[in-house]
Amino acid sequence: MPTAPVLRRAKAADLETIVQFNLSMARETEDIILDAQTVRRGATAVMNDPRRGFYLLAEIGGRVAGQLMVTPEWSDWRNQWFWWIQSVYVAPEFRRRGLFATLFGEVHKLAAGRGDVAGIRLYVDKENTAAQKTYISLGMQESNYRMYER
Fold it and tell me: Are 55 and 7 contacting, i.e. CB atoms less than 8 angstroms apart?
C-alpha cells in the first residue's frame, strides 16, 4: 500500500460514511437494499453507547477507505469477552491492498492488550470464498459452530 493507512475509532462526523459503507456492503454481498434511516439509527446507537461496540476506520490520504465494527459478546464459559467483527467494508478503489488485514491486525492488538478477550469471531456468507481465504490467511480458523436465526 503506497500510503500507510491511519487507523482510528469512528467519531460523529463519520456517521454518513459508515451508513453509506453499510448500505453498499449489503447490496454487494447479499443483494439487499437496506433502509438508510434504520442503518443510520443503528450506527448512531453504536457510536453513542460503547457497550454496543465500536467502529474502527482506516483512512488513506484523509479519506475513510475502510471500516469494521467490533461487537462484544460475554462468554460465561470463559468469563471473558468475544469480539465479533461485523460491517466490514473497503471502498472499491482501496481493495486488494491489505486494508482489511491492517484493520484486523489492529483489532487483534487491541483485544490482546485488554486481557479479557477470549477471541475474535466473525461470520461470513457460505458462498463468499474470497473472504474465507482472506480470513484463513490471517490465522483465523473455521469454527465448529453453525449459525441459525429466526
Answer: no
Amino acid at 93: E
Q: Which of 28, 89, 44 is nearest to 36 (CA)?
A: 44
- Evaluated on CA atoms 68, 71, 134, 123, the torsion sign reads negative
Is 1 a residue whose pLDDT tops 50? no
Give the mean model confidence (pLDDT) for residues 32-49: 97
For 56-68, what is the mean pLDDT?
A: 97
Contacts of 122 (CB under 8 A, 6+ apart): 84, 85, 86, 88, 135, 140
Distances (CA, A) of 4 to 14, 56, 58, 83, 93: 20, 15, 9, 25, 15
User: Which helix (H) or strand (E) covers residue 67, if one does?
Assistant: strand 63-75
* Largest CA-CA distance found in the chain, in angstroms, rounded: 44
